[in-house]
Amino acid sequence: MAPGISLTRIPGLVSNMLNRLGGQPESYEKKANYRFGRTLGAGTYGIVREADSADGKVAIKIILKKNVKGNEQMVYDELELLQRLQHPHIIRFVDWFESRDKYYIVTELATGGELFDRICEQGKFTEKDASQTIRQVLTAVDYLHQNNVVHRDLKPENLLYLTKEPDSNLILADFGIAKMLERKDEVLTTMAGSFGYAAPEVMLKRGHGKPVDMWSLGVITYTLLCGYSPFRSETLQDLIEECTTDKVVFHERYWKDVSSDAKDFILSLLQSNADKRASSEEALRHPWLTGDTATDHNLLPEIRSYMARAKLRRGVELVKLANRIESLKAQEEDPENSDFPVDAIAAADQSRGNVPSASGSGAEPGKEKRTLSKTIKGAIFKEVVLAKVREMRQQEETKKVAEQVEKEAKEKGSS
């Protein structure tokens, strides 16, 4: 044996040598530290999977290099940003590594569920509870803004409870499109945010900055207090018009038991003029966040109603998720070292957390494949019906146009 090499280091050295022979980067050996489980989600650039490690469960974002070719800086920026952020209400960075064709970003795994799902499991959720929930989110946003970071995609799906414990922290996740400003007054111009939560200046492409996060927080707060969004337009143009009128309506039926301070807090955030919108610092000083003026009105019935309406929409999202997984799998350049699930539909179904992952759990071959869930079936049925309705309307309009043309031709012929 060569002097200076211990027996305990031999497996690592062999693994490292094999990786290099296979053309893998040096950091790829870290992949052996993780055992991949169910798929948690998928986007334009890759997927997110749950994984087991020596220190517990983690989430691993897997990004296809070919999908960010020429825009690799986006991945490096996210990595740098995650490593800098240290806050109890922000997802914690764990590690990163790469392969020939992918980047892997490892973060802590939030297992306590999404904000609205978690609330629905409770026996009661009052306005006071809502004020303290929003305060947790706002402290995270303020920390970001103090460090010149704009999240740009605040929405309920990105607000997760770290654990299932009753006193678990609510944490802010998904920094995929977050930006670190080089200057406090730097203006961002790329599209960002999610439909219904994006600020007017983003939709109008006028340039934006930290105030976009405050607008999104205003939408989240409004929805949390009444069970529906302040802006309900279904097209971008209609939504822009609705968001720029500065007319936020508090319907008496749903808002009569909500404090005036809560409404004032929301109005301070939902200002179409970004310069008039409350900053994170100003919002934190708002009296509603102390909870002293918030009522004990139970919001649970409205929130459960909101979640019931969202159920079918989630089914549609699961179908889209399955399609994205299939599309990403087809783009994978190293199928021998695949990180994508074999069965995209089963993976989408498991993403809800209802189905234990067969991957790495000792399940028998073939057990991973599952039938479509009722939710996905319902979503597909809805999509088929809507497509048929659109087709029938189009045929009807075409028929009307044809009849009109024929009528005009006859009139011309008789004249």
List keywords for this structure.
415 residues; alpha+beta; Phosphorylase Kinase, domain 1; Transferase(Phosphotransferase), domain 1; 3 domains; phosphoprotein
Description:
A hairpin with a 3-residue loop joins strand 4 and strand 5. The chain folds into 3 domains: 113 residues, 2-Layer Sandwich (Phosphorylase Kinase, domain 1), CATH 3.30.200.20; 184 residues, Transferase(Phosphotransferase) domain 1 (Transferase(Phosphotransferase), domain 1); 38 residues. The strands form 3 sheets. It has a 5-stranded antiparallel beta sheet with strand order 1-2-3-5-4, with helices on both faces. A two-stranded antiparallel sheet has the order 6-9. 33% of the residues are buried. The radius of gyration is 25 Å and the shape is globular. The chain has 415 residues and is an alpha+beta fold. The chain is built from 13 helices and 9 strands.
Give a brief rundown of this model.
This protein has 415 residues and is of the alpha+beta class. It contains 13 helices and nine strands. A five-stranded antiparallel beta sheet has the order 1-2-3-5-4, sandwiched between helices.
For this structure, what is the CATH homologous superfamily of the largest domain? Transferase(Phosphotransferase) domain 1
- Approximately how much helix is present in the residues? 40-55%
Global structural class: alpha+beta
Indicate the proportion of strand residues: 5-15%
Q: How many β-strand stretches? A: 9
**Largest beta sheet, briefly?**
5 strands, antiparallel
SSE string, helices as H and strands as E: HEEEHEEHHEEEEHHHHHHHHH
Rg, Å, rounded? 25 Å
* CATH class placement of the largest domain: Mainly Alpha
CATH topology of the largest domain: Transferase(Phosphotransferase), domain 1
Q: Which strand order do you get reading across the main beta sheet?
A: 1-2-3-5-4
DSSP summary: helix tally: 13
From the N-terminal CA to the C-terminal CA, the straight-line distance is 107 Å
